[in-house]
Write a structure and sequence with these properties.
This protein is mainly α. Helix content is 70%, strand content 0%. The protein has a single domain (9-304), classed as Farnesyl Diphosphate Synthase (Orthogonal Bundle). Helix 8 packs antiparallel against helix 11 (225-245) and helix 8 (186-199) packs antiparallel against helix 13 (276-304).
Length: 305
């Protein structure tokens, strides 16, 4: 890892693409529902919500990098393009303070975004406040506590990028949790859970050294493929159900284009669980599924509305 890592490297900028991809789905659903009720979407609010979600993601990444460096985990991980941290802090330990400040400032930004929406319209408090409190707890507790509880660790990432982000978007832009959004939030929920689950495979030995207990450690990596399959089934099944029974435009089924790739990821995980070099292409496919599926669904929904 080169020594000249910029100070923003702990934010893990390439990984931040996941936030606008998931938020695109939430905004698209809100746009469709607003249009169906003969009202217009508040685009400045939508942009502000996306920025708030992005700051929450930056906070998680930076704080995770800081804690993993301080715990010594970064010195033992088998780093890949998709897992093991950025490597910035082991290469430049003097950036540790910057990572901590970055994480805290980004968290404050995300919190202020939510507080602004509450200040502007207190009526959204019942829909927005619980999401904000759960999100804050996840950001703060993820690395030091959640990663010690394998089943909670499994669902925490999807909870953040699915129900919390999408229902938060619904609360801000519609003033309520739309039933259609509740179902559609299961799409990124299942996908992002699988993203983090597969990325934990190369880190099992390093995670064990610092007291983490992840699902690949609990079940064994080779036994995790049914969990991957079940969560993909939940994600794509929610999309189909939303179209068939909740009136979501059929164009949203464009998101199903990534289903064959997702099934190939499950096949790769079942065959190469203990062989990281052979698993890497499937980890890349998993990233592509997470980025493309919500975007394709959003585009199809808008075009088909």
């Amino acid at each position: 890892m080169p020594d000249k890592q910029p100070w923003w490297t702990p934010a893990r900028v390439p990984f931040l693409l996941l936030t606008p991809a998931c938020m695109a789905l939430g905004v698209a659903v809100c746009w469709w529902l607003s249009r169906a009720h003969a009202s217009s979407l508040a685009w400045p609010d939508a942009i502000l919500a996306v920025l708030g979600g992005l700051m929450a993601h930056v906070s998680v990444n930076a704080l995770n990098e800081y804690v993993d460096f301080k715990s010594g985990l970064d010195m033992h991980t088998q780093r890949t393009p998709f897992s093991g941290g950025s490597g910035a802090l082991p290469a430049r330990p003097e950036l540790a303070g910057s990572a901590l400040v970055m994480g805290l400032v980004a968290l404050a930004w995300a919190m202020c975004t939510g507080l602004y929406f509450l200040w502007r319209d207190l009526a959204v408090l019942p829909a927005l406040m619980p999401l904000g409190l759960i999100g804050l707890a996840l950001v703060v507790a993820y690395t030091p506590w959640v990663t010690r509880h394998p089943w909670l660790c499994l669902i925490a990432p999807g909870l953040g990028f699915g129900p919390l982000m999408l229902l938060g978007t619904s609360a801000v832009l519609l003033g309520r949790w739309a039933p259609e959004m509740v179902v559609m939030a299961l799409l990124p929920f299942g996908l992002v859970n699988n993203l983090l689950l597969l990325n934990q495979f190369p880190d099992v030995d390093a995670d064990r050294r610092v007291g983490r207990v992840t699902l690949p450690m609990l079940l064994g990596k080779a036994r995790c493929w049914p969990v991957l399959l079940a969560q993909y089934g939940l994600a794509y099944g929610a999309l189909v159900c939303a179209v068939l029974w909740m009136g979501v435009p059929r164009g949203a089924l464009l998101g199903l284009l990534t289903l064959p790739v997702a099934l190939n990821v499950v096949r790769g995980a079942s065959r190469h669980a203990d062989n990281t070099p052979a698993l890497l292409p499937f980890m890349g496919m998993n990233v592509a599924v997470n980025l493309l599926t919500p975007v394709l669904t959003a585009v199809g929904l808008v075009v088909g509305a």
